Amino acid sequence: MASGKVENFADIARNTQHKLSPAPPAGLKSIFDACRRIYPNQPNPLQVTAVVKYWLGGPDPLDYVSMYNNLGSVENGIPPHWHYVSFGLSDLHGDGRVHETNTDGVSGFGFELTFRLKRESWDKTPPTWPATVLQSLARYVFQSENTFVPGDHVSWHVALDSGESRIQHMLMAEDPQLGSIHTLHGRLAFMQIVGVCAEELEAAQQWNGPGVLQLLRKVPVAGGPWLVTNMQRGETVFELEPSLQDALSLGIETEGSNLSGVSAKCYWDDIDYPASCTRSSSPHSIRSTLSSLQEQQARLSQKDEEEIKATLRRGLKDIPLLPPIKSPASCQVVESEPLELHQTKALEGVHVKFNHESGSLLPLTLQGRLKHGRHFTFKNILGDIAITFVSEGIDGAFVDKDGPYAAHGPWLQVLIPSDFLNELIDDLEEVPRLQPEDLPKTYRWPERQFALTILPRREVKVG
């Protein structure tokens, strides 16, 4: 948080009381009171505060990040640690300056972020880099309007402290002490960030986040009961406790993956049309796509329809690079395009394209989702394009064995029938191991009129 400064709550309360109202804002006070119940001996914690508040045009959505000294419980496998708590994703003020007035019982986005960082023996004061991570996640939430729930994951691809640590990704869990509270402006939950290694993130993708969190709780060094992040940890939970690999394998085999989609760099072409007149080369608005989807409601099962609508409306959670924040004034509503541009149309054949990072999730798509009778969506982070792979038996899909490819505006559905699934699994098993010199690489199944290209990590060619 380059624009932040360190203060304590007493200073903030006095300044707020003097400048804004006879008492600290109700939402802010509710969070502070929840923390005070846990830390009665720390009435004035250090806080990183935005110099220019977001509602005054500043870049940081979080007004404050409090930093508490938690003594832990060594006998219960909980080490001493720093406990960070955000202020700003929920409605602190209740006057519309940041969040709309509560109408559904939820305060703001309905949660605040927390983080528990193992305190090293040489630490006298809490490091402030976790506040920067919390602000980055808050920017993503404010721009995308995506929220976090326990079990969600965030691909970060760099050490959380920007050093050399293996802890380069995050899972989300309910904070074990703060839980959830009700404020004057609605309810909110405290969502705890848990730092994980790449192998643990992959396990969460192949199986599910809650399952992996439970494995981390079993190993004190990897998190323990309160999921305390240890940036010095050099081994994965599976290296620390090899028997947990069996639990992971069993979970994947019996349950598959509960990850229904990711934001990605992807594209598709109708291979029967010249590149200059493919539908995917025309711009599409999410709003008009959703309008058309509503007309299809009778054909789509409620579960699948809601998941895909959410995908196209807000994107998906797994965004490797968090986009820059947009101020409220810069957000514009895109007018709907003519409905005829968004009629569902069967296609004779398709060519789908992914950059390597996105394509590396194809084995997960096939084995962890489609093989268990589910679907998986790739949503392009650079536009409105979405590619959904579906298995046979998905209620309401607008593809079937006689017409396995169909487009609804920018949304492509690809049916992978059971007699093609194992062949795809075998052919694409190598994708995560492809090296830069192997790319681009195109896989073709002429009898299926289907092609798939893996492009270099940062590249997705159009047309």
Arithmetic mean of pLDDT? 82
Relative helix content: 25-40%
Strand count: 19
- End-to-end C-alpha gap: 40 Å
Total helices: the number is: 12
Instruction: Name the beta content range.
Output: 15-25%
Largest sheet: number of strands, sense, barrel closure: 9 strands, mixed
Q: Please tell me how large the radius of gyration is.
A: 24 Å
3D structure, described in words:
With about 475 residues, this protein is α+β, with helices and mostly antiparallel strands. The chain has twelve helices and 19 strands. The strands form three sheets. Strands 1, 2, 3, 4, 5, 6, 7, 8 and 9 form a nine-stranded mixed sheet that branches. Strands 10-14-15-17-16-12 form a six-stranded mixed sheet, with helices on one face. Strands 11-13-19-18 form a four-stranded mixed sheet. Helix 4 packs across helix 5 and helix 11 packs antiparallel against helix 12 (about 420-430). It is globular. Residues about 275-305 and about 310-340 have low confidence and may be disordered.
Topology, element by element:
Blueprint lengths: L3 E5 H11 L6 H13 L7 E5 L13 E7 L10 E7 L18 E13 L10 H16 L8 E3 L13 E6 L5 E4 L2 E11 L1 H9 L2 H9 L19 H4 L3 H12 L5 E4 L1 E5 L15 H10 L6 H13 L29 E3 L3 E6 H4 L2 H8 L5 E6 L5 E5 L14 E4 L2 E5 L2 H11 L12 E5 L4 E6 L8
Parallel strand pairs: 5-9, 10-14, 13-19, 15-17
Antiparallel strand pairs: 1-2, 2-3, 3-4, 4-5, 6-7, 7-9, 8-9, 11-13, 12-16, 14-15, 16-17, 18-19
Helix pairs in contact: 4-5, 8-9, 11-12
